Amino acid sequence: MLDFILKKKSQKAVIIGATSGDTGSAAINGCYQCDLAKIFILHPKGLISEIQRRQMTSFNSPNVYNLALNGNYDQCQEIVKLMLNDNDFLPDQRLLLPVNSINWLRIIGQIIYYFYLSLRMGAPSIKVKYVVPTGNFGDIFAGFIAYKMGLPIGKLIIATNQNDILDRFIKNNAYQRATLQKTLSPSMDIQVSSNFERLLFEYHGRNGQIIADKMAQFKATGSLSVATNILSQIKQIFLSASANDQQIISEMQNIYQQSNYLIDPHTATATHAYQQVKAQLTGPTIALATAHPAKFPEALAAAKLTLPAMPDKLAQLEQLPEFYDSLPAELVAVKNYISQKLS
User: Fold this and answer.
1) Taking the C-alpha atoms of 172, 173, 176 and 182 in order, what is their torsion angle to the nearest 10 degrees?
2) Rounded to 5 degrees, what are φ and ψ at 314?
3) Which domains does the chain have, with CATH numbers?
4) Coil/strand/helix, residue 19
5) β-strand 175-176 against 223-224: which pairing, if any?
6) What is the mean pLDDT of residues 164-174?
7) Above 90 in pLDDT, residue 2?
8) Which H or E run contains 335?
9) Smallest Cα–Cα separation from 136: which of 171, 111, 100?
10) Residues 265-310: tens digit of each pLDDT
11) Most buried residue among 117, 138, 268, 318 by CB atoms closer than 10 A?
12) How confident is the model at residue 92 (pLDDT cuts 50, 70, 90)?
């Protein structure tokens, strides 16, 4: 579709994304054959699993560029946002297209399965609850939009790891930046959740100026809160829970013992969160699973769990060379790199 539209409009595009592990490889797989687009994916060096990295960096394609930045995911994401607001460095009036959940199209795609699952479970006569592992608040925000569209959802349960800024907001009205921690669930090692800003926008009467002021306050102080009545409205649909690494390990073990089914550490935050809030729920609850456990050998080893077999595509990655460049987590460095590759 992207190639079709670019050819029809005689345009070229630069696809930009920051990844905490999974979005990057999905985007590259989708776009590496686009003739009129070059794709640049930023990831935090050393802060995603080796298999997640290799899924991206094993592509030897002339239009794919992987950048390992010496920083954390929040810094990668901030650079992408800044470039979206200032893309004059691109030649030929090229389009700059994000692939993170900061791209509204990504949210639209995720809305669909909330409707599909709810209907399969008996909606509209049954209100299904969803527990969603989240770092960037994208997938669960898609569930919120489905709810706003009229889908009868009972509750949306935010499941986080030790980087628990969202859980702290729901429980204590404290959206407060803390030191980013490296965990066994690296795709959720995020402190600044981009789509949370969209939720605040919805609960403040879609008033852009109020949200701009709040986000400026957050950038300056690392903290924000909302009026008590707004938090009460948010809590009518949202619950939350967090899990540390030991709880994630225990949850992976428990699920395997109960069902002989291996879950990855991110999915484990969801099933753990369900256990924390289930006393407040009635009726069916769906935990949205995330990635294949094979991508997280460190978590499997910590839980003393063994894969029956490595998926073929993942097993092949170890034999492939990697292609990526390392850069400082600085806007100017990334802009200069992209400009050079486009010249």
Assistant:
1) 50
2) -75, -35
3) 2-100+314-342 (3.40.50.1100), 104-302 (3.40.50.1100)
4) coil
5) antiparallel
6) 97
7) no
8) helix 331-342
9) 100
10) 999 999 999 999 999 999 999 999 989 999 999 999 999 999 989 9
11) 268
12) confident
Identify the residue whose tokens are 């509204």.
Answer: 104
User: Tokens standing for 176?
Assistant: 């407060």
Nearest CA among 249, 32, 23 for reference residue 136: 23
Percentage of the chain with pLDDT > 90?
Answer: 89
The vertex-291 CA angle with 330 and 53, nearest 5°, equals 40
Cα 142 → chain centroid: 12
Query: Cβ(193)–Cβ(20) under 8 Å?
Result: no
DSSP 148-201: HTT--EEEEEEEE-S--HHHHHHHHS-EE-------S-GGG--SS-TTHHHHHH
Looking at residue 121, its amino acid is M
How many angstroms separate the CA atoms of 121 and 271, rounded?
A: 19
Find the mean pLDDT for residues 307-335: 94
In this structure, are residues 324 and 68 in contact, taking their beta carbons and an 8 Å threshold?
A: yes
How many residues in total does the chain contain? 343
